[in-house]
Every structure is written in C-alpha cells, then in structure tokens.
Description:
heterodimer, A: 515 residues, Rossmann fold, 6-stranded mixed beta sheet, 20 strands, 32% helix, globular, B: mainly alpha, 0% strand
Amino acid sequence: MLAPALELRNINKSYDRNIALDGASISIAPGSIHGLIGENGAGKSSLMQVAYGLVSPDHGEILIDGAIVEFSDPEQAIEHGIGMLHQQANWLEQLSVFDNIMLVEPVTGFLYQDNNQARRKLELLRREFGFSFSLATKISQLNYSQRQLVDVLRSLYRGVRVLILDEPLALLSSDQADYLNKLLVLLKLQGISVIVVSHKLAVLHQLCDVISVIKTGQMIACIDPKQLSLIQLSKLMVGREINLPHPRQEKLDGAGTVLLQLDDITVKGFKRGRKSASMPRLSKVSAKFYGAEIVACVGLPNAGQELFIDVIAGMARFNLGSLKLFEQSISTTTRYNIKKARQLGIAYAPNPVWEIGLVEQFSMAESAYLGYQERSVGRWGLISRRHKNVHCAQLMQQWDIRPALPTMLSGSFSGGNQQKMVLAREFAQNPRLLLLNQPTHGVDAGAVEHIYRRLFELRDSGATIIFCSNDLDEVMSLADRVCIFGQGRLIKVADMSSLTKSQLSLDIINGGHDE
Amino acid sequence: MNRTQPWWFNNLLLPLANIVLAFLACAIVLWLMGVDVAVAGQVMLQGAFGHWEGLGYTLFYATNFIFAGLGVALAWQAGLFNIGGEGQAMIGGLGITFACLYFVELPLLLLFPLTIIVSAAFGALWAFIPGWLNAYRGSHIVITTIMFNLIASSLLVYLLVGPLKEAGQMAAVSRVLPASSWLPTLDAIIAPLGIEFGASPLNISFIWALICCGLVYICLWHSRLGYEMRVIGLNTHSARFAGIKRERIIVVTMLLSGALTGFIGLNEVQGSSHQLHVEFVSGFGFAGVAIALMGRNHPLGIIIASILFGALYQGGGELAFTSEHISNDIIILIQALVVLFCGALEYMLKPSLMRLLGLDRAVRRSGEC
Lengths: 515, 369
C-alpha cells in the first residue's frame, strides 16, 4: 500500500490557556477526498493550519509520503506540495488572474521576465480543469466563488498534491455543487488529495471517500461515509442525534400584519467611465413582509438579494421608490441609515462577520456591543461596567461560544464562534425585524439546530426574519416564504409549501438568464 | 491570529532591547569621535537624574513630549497620522500669549483654566481644517498637517516681527507676559514644605500633562467616543456597520489631538520662557511621533517614553556642555537612533529574541497547566 500523501501524528497545540489540539492525528491517502468535520472550536482549523505551516505544533510530527518533514512557514509547506484555499484571500483586484498568480512566484529574469512558459502551463491547467474564466480577466470582474477557483488554479500551478479547502462556502453553494463534483473527480484522477473542512455534513457525506471526526482537539473517528448514514455521522460529531436536514417548524396560523413594505425600490448601478450608469443593481423591487414569518432571499451570486437586505438595514442607499417600516414611511429623501434602523427595532447580522460584524483586534467583550455602543453607555457617559464584563459572558454562556473568554481577541475565535457571537448580540436586542446574511456560515450542525430553534421562537413571538442564504437545505428548513432574485429584479415570491428543492434550484438558475 | 508571545514581550522586552541597541550604536559613534564612552554615559545619567535640578529639567522636557505624544497617539487610534504637532503647538502657544497679555488682571487661579481652554481651542482650530478636509474631501492628513506646520510657522514669524513685536527689541519674541500669569514652578510649590528642589523650569503643567494621560486613557478605552474612534482606526467596514459617522469622529479626533498638542505652549510659554519665541516648539511636535511609537500609543507608555526622551534631552545637553568635542547636535543624533531602532527597525530583533528565550515552547507549556 502506498504511504499516505500527508500524515499528521499526535499533534498538540495550545494557545495561552486554551488547548486547541490534543494529540490529533490524520492520514490522507493519495488521490482521496477526505472530509474533516467537528464542532466549532473542535480544532479543525488549527489542525489544518499546522498542516499548512501557519502554526507550528507544540508536539507531534508531520509526514509527507512517509518521511518526516518540518515546516516553519507556508512557503515550505507549498514546496512540499501542500496547498490551502483561504477564506480571506487577498487579491489585487485591478490585476488579471495571471498577474495575481504570478505575483507570488520568484522573479527569474533580470529586469525582464519571460512569462510565456508560465502562461502556457497555466492555460493548459485551466483547460484541463475546465475553469470558465480567462487568464486575462481582472479579478474585480470575478465573483467570490470564481475567485476561489483562481485560488485552486494557483495551487495547481504550484504543484499541489494535497489541497486543503477550509469551509469553501462559495464553492459548496448550490449552483456550484455540480461543478465542484467534477473538479474533485479531475483532481483525484491526477492523484491530488483534497481535504474538505466543512459543516455541511450532507455535502461531505456525498462527496468524500473518508471522513475524519475531530472533537475537543482529538480525532475520535475516521469512517467510510458509505458505511454510515448522515444521522449517525452527525451523532458521532455532536454526541447526540440531529435530524438532517434540520426539520421545519411551520409557522402559526393566521397572517400577521404588514411590518415592512417596499415599493419600486431601485438602486442604480456603478458608474462605468464616461458612459451612463450600468444596469441597476436593484430594479423596481416591491414586496410585503408580515409579522411572524421567515422569508428567504435567494438567487445566484450578485443577483441583488444581499443588496436588498442592505437597503432594508440602511446600509445601502436606494435611488428610487419608498419603504414603509412599522408605519414609518421612508423615501429617498428621508435620512435613513443603520443607526435609525436599529432605533426602529431592526437587527442585522452581516456576512462575512469577521470582516463587518465585529472588530477582530477588539476583545470579544468589546465586539459584543458593536453597533449598540450608544445603548451601552452608563454613568458619566462611559461604557457601563455591565457591558464591559457581564454582557459578553452571558451571551457566551447562552450561545455556547467557546472558549468562553470575553477578554480573548475577537479574531482569535473560530469563524463559527464569531458567527454565533454576532447572532447572539443581535438576538439580545429583541428585534422586531431581524436581517441575516448567511446566518449559519461556518457554524456546526449542533449549533445550527440551536440557531434554528431560536429563529423559530423569535418568529412565533411575532417578529419578521429575512435572510439570505446560499444553502438550499437551509432555505428549505427555515423559510415560510421565499423571494427569488435574478439580475437585480425580484422575479418570484412563493410559499415554501408549494415548492420543492429541485424546483427552487431551477428557479434560481433561470433567474440568471434573460427570458 | 496567533498570540504566541506573552504581553510583556512586545510591550516591555522588545522596546527595551531596541533602546539598548540604539544606545550601543550611539556609543560606537561617540567612541569613533574619540570620546570616553563610559565617562560620557556617566555625565548624561548624572545630568538627567543625578541631582534635583537635572531631574527637574528632565521632567520639564518630558512634559512637552507627553503632550506631543498624546496628540499623535490619540489620532493614531482613529487611524489618523497627525504630524502637524509643530503647527498646533505654535498656534496653541500663540493663544496663550494672547490670553495672558489680554487678561492681565485675572488671578492665576482663574487664568490657568482659561489658558488651558484657550490653548486647547487654538491647537484644535489648527487641526480642524486638515481634519475636516480629510473627513469630507478625502485630503491626505499627512500632507495637510505638514502644510499647516509651515503656515503656522510663517504666521508666527509674521506676528513676531510685526504686530506682536515689542518696540526696541531685535529678536523675534513677544512682550514678556505679566508675572502674575506665570505658572508656578514645582520647586516654588514644594518649597514651603521644606524640600529643596533646585531651580528648574518644571512647573504645574507637568501635573496637567499627567492628568491628560488619565483623561486620554479613559476616553480611549472607557468611553463611547473612544470606542468609535478605535473601530474607525481598525476596520472601516465594521464602522459603517456599527452606524458610526466616520466624518464626524475624524473631525472630533483631530480637534482633540490638536488640543492636546496645543498644551505644549502652557509648559514652554506660560511656564518657562514667559514670552513667545518664534521657535519655541523646536521639534517637540515632531518628536511626538517617536514618543507615540515608542509608547505603543498608550498613555502609560507615552509617560515612560517621554521621561526617557526628556532624560536624553537634558543629559545630552549636559554632555555637550561639559565636553568640547561634542556639540548640541548629539541630542538629535541620539534621538534619531532611538527612533530608528524603536520605529523603523521595531521588529528586527523579534525572531532572534524569541529564539534566544525559547519563548514559543516555554510559554505554551506554562499555558497547559
């Protein structure tokens, strides 16, 4: 039998007082697709950071093809054929795909670099793996999932043999699922192993040859997904049974009153050069939202659903139309912003949370009142002691945010725990209208169950919830109604009861094309 | 984000090592000049801390550095690089001169609060225009504040050779302020207690500087304003999400920053020279950048860095005075080396220091217990 392409043995790693990895081991066979699952803060990301040389372990060994190696930085890991897709990749948006890939390559020539060979090689790889963008495309013209593919191409160019995909949200989104499948098969044929770290158990269950389960820094199982049902898998991970997909909870009978009404909301496109503005980003969107309901906004990337939420939240301005919020009329001339929205009883959890929803360099206690700094002022105009100490600790306890250390930097928490913190903060305001963008991004299945339960409770208390999600299973489990966006227009509003998942997915794809 | 070093590593050990390195470099220069380094070091130490008067001078200079450093640090927390300290200090001093010359009758107990307010207002005024231009018109704050230094300097020259010039006086200085407006020196204050402090210009504005440190600390880390300033300084996306009015906070930050720097005039004009010299700021405003850098933009760090710089100023002056080889420029040399090693080469020593201490592993093991 071949030696594993990558093996990590007995990895230990702790930060300050927090043990991230406690003797974790993983072994990746050549040409396999290996899933890695675990709850938030179980140590998935830490383990992958060790494999990629971002973090050096306290104890333990890294083996490549059976030989012990040591990395002190990612550069060395890359030389050994380890590649990783970044959640937060930095691109130079005004440069082409080709230039961005070449940026990190060493300069060989003096003054002039002959790039033709590299270009040929990249073009070959691009065709072989069927990437749709051309090498000359500017990064700014690519959407999030295409950028991740550029990252894959970059890894391939650098001779990757083990590719780590850490929560590749955009790639796993429903419209990309088929493509990802094809890509993974192609990678496999080339003998390239792929490690997929994700919370989307259903997707992994289908995709992977092997799945490893990590819990509190230890590897507790390594299983063949064909031998185990999805429910058994989730039980292994969380320690109790979780129904997947998460069960729906129907809303109570009787329509609520209209809480929010939008009439002909239009947001102009970006100006391009001297020519007139491009296509509007939102055009003539009218919709009504009632109390006690959950509405999903879906569409292909940049179809307008996220902007729609931003408009309601006061984060984006609209150019035409009007809004009616809790009996308050808002027109284009009204001063409306997110501060005003919060005063009216709107709460908003944006995406990605680590970029917008909190400040990574702040302690979690400080991030726990971001946006509500006015309400946290106590005596003498200073931030009250309760908000400094107690508030965050309470939220951490209620939402099981780990580690429960309010003084730890927000950026040191895992993505799922950051997401939970932002949700906890917004829930704590008892909103009448809750807006969410990718509400369970990076959150594990156990916590998702908890979040859904909270959302249903909030709805049943009379509030309206509007959310955007790339995850159709999430839409199917949560939403009472769905708004489907295509090219800036609201093309369909439907009751969930009259819609199947495949039909929904078809509607979304159709929304991307002109009739 | 990995926090692999304990807090004292970045905040104490590293700056300390950098300073030692700067002094070493300085010692080499002195040695090349043929100066006995050991003697020179002793002279400097003796001059800065060895006797009450020297200590007084050290703290007197430190007062200027504290005000300048606070001004830079406060703006820095909001992501603004205010290097207009020179100009803001000049205009602050001008305001104090006006106030002292105009309110001749006022007792010091009322005049001091008034001059505090006036110097703050004048300094803030000078920072307001660059701040406004940055917030609402997108002008680069570094460019505008530098230009405002030049404008302030020209303005002062114009006033001191023209309208404010005392008749029969050749130098570009204003009239001497009435003696009733002079800030009491600390040695005058504690003399009744029977303590002999020696005649240094150290005055009560030093106490005000320490109070300002406390106020800045409270503002930055305990108030809503400081919270919003820091959010803006760290992440503009989060700031927008938090509903923070970026433009307004930037203007307010610059006002506060300018006000703090404007206080230099209290110490120099009202506390020491008792008249407005055309070059009374003489680089203190710029030194504020170095102070803030060394003090990690934290009031406590700024106090420590200011006292160090004050000691360099005073000790270096003493050295230049006693040794014939050495001119006053030695102070600038030492300062430049400190800035070089603490600022530009801040993290040069970090990897080797960590390796030296075996810090990576040692710290984590202690964390496991």
